[in-house]
Amino acid sequence: MPSLLLLAGPVLLTLWAIHCMIRRSKRHSIDYLPGPSRKTYFFRPTEFGEADLNFTKEYGAAIRTTTTFGRDVLFTSDPKAIQYIMNTSGYNFPKPADRRVTLEMATGRGPVWAEGTAREAVTKTRRDFLANGKPQVVNVLTKLHRTTLDAIGEAAFGYNFHAIDQKEESVLAKAYDNLLPKSSMHRPDFSLIFETFLGFLPSWLVKLGITVPVGRFKLLSNYMRVAEKVAQEIIDKQTDLYLKGKEGSKDVMSLLVRANLSEDPRTKLSSKEIIPQMTTLFLAGHDTAATTTAWFLYELAKYPECQTRIREEIAAVKAVVAERGDTEPTIADLDGMEYTLAETLSFHGIVANLSREATRDDVIPLQFPQKTRYNDTVTSIPVRKGQYTILSLFAYNRLTQVWGPDADKWKPERFLSGSLKESQKVNVGVIVNVMSFSSGLRSCVGWRFAVLEMQAILMEFIEKFEFTLAPNVEIYPAFAGLMSPMVRGSNELAAEMPLIVKPL
Ligand code: HEM
């Protein structure tokens, strides 16, 4: 009997090993694709960006990388593959569980829709720049964060966050202060493993898990408490106004308040359902636009001739507006300036990549044939149910096959010349084929708002100020939740964009 027991151990171990090998061989259905070595078993989000470009340059636009727990990832920047995953077969490629955990920590549960403009906030920041009338080094990113937070507050919620004034009430602005860099940079392996592990748990346990009071989890759950409190205050204030017959007419909030008060169970939304939608908008609606605009100002500071050209373009638009007898440009006027912005959206897409997971066996088509490890070429990639996929928006936006041999250079003329038409054979994204707002079913709901808002900001700022690079300051993009500007050799837990601002 004891000898039987002794035998059982090795047999069980062998069976387990065979089971693992079978699972592994299934998992490795994309093993024939080239890619970096598997020695890094933990997926480090801070490596996004530069790594996206290096992988793509070295191995191609559809390759294999590895994520936490050694899981094989189809890593692609191929336009047709992205179009297939995000648009054509979008329902079959939802966000993987571990990414949903990350999003829940930063935004709560649930996105929503928004439109509007932001003039008051922009004007206030412009006055703020002018405080002493002399050229000065300004961290324009902080100013832009406050501008865009107040703008989304006014436009979507009819609420003043007082971010620009920095009044007592600006608790949300304070809670946001470098929240993403602090919670994304230098994460220990434990934190990465724990977050991936949470993705395997039922959602009620995830909710509990993300409140563990350590590191990134503590930081984000403290922030979420503030955001939820502010959201509740807005609901209370707007409900009160609505009941007094003074509801804001077109902001998103008045729609939510009406849904909250609805007697009809089909249209009723509880506060529990509304709050995550609001906290999603708080974050998605301001940090993104602020960071993109900061990169734009950086490029204009680097290329003064482009700054002059844009200033002339703004002056021309303003002259047309004045001739019409208007005081403000219309949306059509702003749309006329779209292409300058497109290069920043493309070159400085601040969401580096997105993850998706196949819910069924599928075949992903490729636009650019991919060389395999065995030196043959494939034009599509069969994937099994469960295949983890990373779509590199960052690498796609700089793909030479799409944007030309100088894709790694900031070049606004790219969108003016019309020379891209031939290479842009696949329609992806929501605007001029750039992927910065994602594409298809889950693309950015605020892209239109963001484009108009950024143009409104740029019009005010570039007309009134000249931006130049601060001496001896090297700025680089770091993955800090978003592709954020950081100063080489400075605090890595703070995103910043110091530029010299001179009133004109
Ligand atoms: C330059 C500015 C912006 C950029 C680059 C940007 C980019 C993106 C990207 C790449 C996604 C897809 C995320 C994913 O699939 O996980 C997204 C989603 C989203 N964005 Fe934006 N965004 C910007 C501004 C805004 C603004 C101003 C708002 C709100 C007014 C907004 C609201 C949202 C929401 C609610 C989603 C979630 C949509 C969904 O999952 O169905 N974004 N954005």
TrEMBL record:
Its cofactor is heme. Pfam families: p450 (PF00067). Keywords: Heme, Iron, Metal-binding, Monooxygenase, Oxidoreductase, Signal. InterPro entries: Cyt_P450, Cyt_P450_CS, Cyt_P450_sf, Cytochrome_P450_monoxygenase. The keyword Signal applies. Residues 1-27 form the signal peptide. Pathway: Secondary metabolite biosynthesis. One of its GO terms (molecular function) is monooxygenase activity. PANTHER family: CYTOCHROME P450, CYTOCHROME P450 12A4, MITOCHONDRIAL-RELATED. Belongs to the cytochrome P450 family. This is Cytochrome P450. It comes from Sphaerobolus stellatus (strain SS14). The lineage of its organism: Eukaryota, Fungi, Dikarya, Basidiomycota, Agaricomycotina.
